[in-house]
Amino acid sequence: MATQTTTAPGRITFLHVAIALQTLALLFQAGTAGMLLSSSLGATLHDVGSRVMYGASMLYVVAAILAWRPGGGPPRPILYSSGFLVLASVQVVLGIAHIPSLHVPLGVLMFALSVLALGQALTSAPGVNPLRRTP
Asked: Full-prediction pTM beyond 0.90?
């Protein structure tokens, strides 16, 4: 018989750290995108930040899988993290192709979704969606 484990309320998990790292990397990317307009250093920082952001998205997938399977958590974060990895891949392609008309709005969307995912992970018990009303 499998044992399901849950984390204590208020406890920071590897999944929380992975989502927070991804959110911070996306915020850094927004800042360096602005720097692209005024300095050559901005291009270098944005390039390095893109690699960190992509790595953070991969780490989020790994953390979601580890929280689900051995940790007994819900499988939904795997779907979210996989979606972020797909969006990050599209973002990299758009950045390399120099299509800012799609690259910038997608970056804003990714940051917003990452903040929502972080907020949901930090405010809910495992398996509970705080945005869903219960009668």
From this structure: no
Taking Cα atoms as reference points, which of 46, 19, 47 lies closest to residue 110?
19
pLDDT tens string 74-124: 888 899 999 999 999 999 999 999 999 999 999 999 999 999 999 988 887
77-91 pLDDT, tens digit each: 899 999 999 999 999
Q: How far is residue 85's CA from residue 88's CA, in Å, rounded to a whole number? A: 5
Amino acid letter, 85: L
CA 91 remoteness from chain centre: 13
**Cβ partners under 8 Å of residue 18, min gap 6:** 56, 59, 60, 62, 63, 64, 81
Contact 107, 91 (CB under 8 A): yes
